[in-house]
Amino acid sequence: MNCTTDKDTTLTCANEKAVAATEERFLKPRYRAREDDHGYQVKVYVPGAGKSGVTLSLAEEVLTITAKREDAAPEGWQARSRELPEGDYRLRLRLNAKIDPERITAKVEDGVLDIGLPLKEADKPRVIDVA
Amino acid sequence: MDKLGMVAAYTLRQIPNFKHMKPIHYHHPLTHTLNELNGWFREPFTDFEPFSRFLGHRFRDLVGDDSRLACDLFEDDEHYALRFHLPGIAKKDVRVSWEPSGELLVSYEREEKQGEEDEALVARASRRVALPDGVDPESVTAKLTDGVLTVTVGKAPTLKPRTIEIA
Description:
The complex is a heterodimer of chains A (about 130) and B (about 170).
Chain A: H1 7-22, E1 26-27, E2 31-36, E3 39-45, E4 49-59, E5 62-69, E6 78-81, E7 88-95, E8 105-109, E9 112-118
Parallel strand pairs in A: 1-7
Antiparallel strand pairs in A: 2-3, 3-9, 4-5, 5-7, 8-9
Chain B: H1 3-14, H2 29-41, E1 45-47, H3 50-64, E2 71-75, E3 79-85, E4 94-98, E5 103-114, E6 119-130, E7 135-145, E8 148-155
């Protein structure tokens, strides 16, 4: 971020820093995407996230997927060594295809979030009969 | 030679510098190129981290299916607990065993369909964890929820903290 010596700008910079400091940190989950004629299937790997912690939101062609971890170590346990990443998951995907927002489906099972992104009917490939 | 072995041999010839590395995932070189080209022209969506888009794209599968499972180790007065992330792995594909050497071995093996050819691949990974002497092998329990495997091992009485009363 470029801060100038101008008083007003410095103020906004400080403000933004404060916001950035309070903002939650997220883990970017691994994901895989597949395509077929009807749309896309995205598999997001979110181990430790249950059904209740998952939210999907679509705003201005950006699909934001967040998944809250529910596998926190129980009280009284002490960590001896940690190799697994910590934090909740967030994945943001910019959709470059015309997805029908009404028919987006999502299912969480065994730590895998399956998202179905169907194309709008008008955007599906059409078979044109050769006369 | 099995299919995976053949592919491994091929990969090793292609990348001589990687000879010492264990092949952990297989991608047919040609399908890979085709997929990449497809993606280039008709990328359905892009994610926000440019690094992952260019590098991660190529390495995601490699990094993801590491043959050595990462694990967290916790302890309380009575138990040790190990935690593994196994998203999408069924209970029947996971094996937890107590080795006579006093180690706990956690592994999974699963056939997965990859690509349009529906070639069957075997994804496997394992982890050996040496636990201190005096844990109770009879007390090992394992639980798989939401893609997280938790293995709990009870401590033998000698390992548990004890308060000594002053006479």
